[in-house]
Design goal:
Elements: E1 7-12, E2 23-28, E3 73-76, H1 85-88, E4 92-93, E5 96-97, E6 105-112, E7 118-119, E8 122-125, E9 135-144, E10 150-152, E11 154-160, E12 177-180, E13 190-197, E14 204-208, E15 217-219, E16 229-241, E17 252-253, E18 264-265, E19 272-277, E20 283-289, E21 293-294, E22 302-310, E23 313-321
Parallel strand pairs: 17-23
Antiparallel strand pairs: 1-2, 3-6, 4-5, 6-7, 6-16, 8-14, 9-13, 9-16, 10-15, 11-12, 11-14, 18-21, 19-20, 19-22, 22-23
Length: 323
């Protein structure tokens, strides 16, 4: 794990701390993280009861299931059945060419306007019930299908206490999380993340387009099939308690205006209060938000200390400022 990690040593002289012998402190130029439990079972779609051989087989990636009449699809490199590779193989399948974001499998959902208008969804039961007034952080990775050229500007994630089902082609629900903006990247996997506060007791989630009100579309071709709908590949779905979110906290930065490591900030998807103290305990920086940024202005080179507060949970540590 420590391969290819750059390290810096800093010597403190007796003049800085009178009466104390010189010491060397080792600073690793890597972030600090806390691994959290993913509450979405099989969020990477790697476990399956059998390899897919046709469309609409999301249920093979248990515990995922189809909550509507739409035929959401499961893709995996394990495909060997004759003809199945044309439809649900990885990386090449009927909707494009894409390797999994991780592992060998992923799922796909879309909206079709051919013959019958219908929407596709992915649903699953969570590993535990969500707790009242707790903030949960959600994340998924998405890549747009090669074959489709219609794009919508909204994708929702809905949570419920009960199993989510409908006998119709559309789930008219109000998602707690809504991603907005045209999702047009057909080459890369793009991360979408957000958070919400649980009402309590939610134990099912569903991903898809739930409300067509105010939804805009972007059409980039004239082919009848390709412009008839939208289709996404989805991988690595996760839900964790925000207080357990991976905190990427650098412990060294160099604000010298060379556009390299000029700012110190915590990579996160949730709201926090950050305070920076000098060695005398004075606050030199304080900011509240989702990603507070400290540029080290008006501060001399040396060691500083941070305090990060998230939902009454506090994380502390040191930062080395080098000029």
């Amino acid at each position: 794990m420590l391969n290819n990690i750059k390290m810096v040593t800093k010597k403190f002289s007796p003049g800085i701390f009178p009466g104390i012998k010189p010491v060397f402190i080792l600073f690793l130029l890597i972030p600090f993280g806390i691994k959290a439990q993913n509450l979405v079972p099989n969020g990477d779609f790697e476990y399956y009861t059998q390899c897919p051989n046709d469309y609409g087989q999301v249920s093979y990636a248990v515990p995922w299931y189809l909550p509507s009449n739409g035929s959401s699809d499961y893709y995996n490199e394990c495909v060997t059945a004759p003809g199945a590779s044309l439809y649900v193989d990885v990386p090449s399948n009927s909707f494009g060419y894409q390797y999994a974001h991780s592992g060998k499998g992923y799922c796909g959902i879309g909206k079709s306007d051919i013959d019958i208008v219908y929407f596709e969804y992915l649903a699953s039961k969570l590993s535990i019930q969500l707790e009242t007034n707790k903030e949960y952080c959600f994340e998924l990775w998405l890549s747009t299908s090669d074959t489709m050229c219609t794009y919508f500007d909204k994708l929702g994630v809905y949570f419920d206490q009960d199993s989510i089902h409908t006998n119709s082609n559309f789930l008219n629900l109000s998602p707690q999380i809504l991603f907005e903006g045209f999702m047009t990247d057909k080459v890369n996997w793009v991360k979408y993340e957000s958070s919400f506060v649980a009402s309590g007791g939610e134990q099912f989630l569903c991903i898809g387009l739930f409300d067509t009100t105010g939804v805009d579309s972007l059409i980039t071709c004239n082919d009848i099939f390709s412009k008839s709908g939208e289709y996404f590949f989805i991988d690595d779905v996760s839900l964790i308690e925000c207080t357990e979110l991976n905190l990427v906290i650098p412990n060294i930065f160099s604000p010298n205006n060379d556009k390299v490591n000029d700012n110190w900030f915590v990579q996160s998807a949730f709201t926090m209060n950050v305070r920076i103290f000098n060695r005398w305990g004075n606050i030199v920086f304080e900011e509240y938000g989702k990603q507070p940024v400290w540029d080290g202005s008006n501060c001399t080179e040396g060691v500083y200390f941070y305090q990060i507060e998230i939902n009454e949970n506090i994380k502390t540590g040191f930062i080395q400022l080098i000029r």
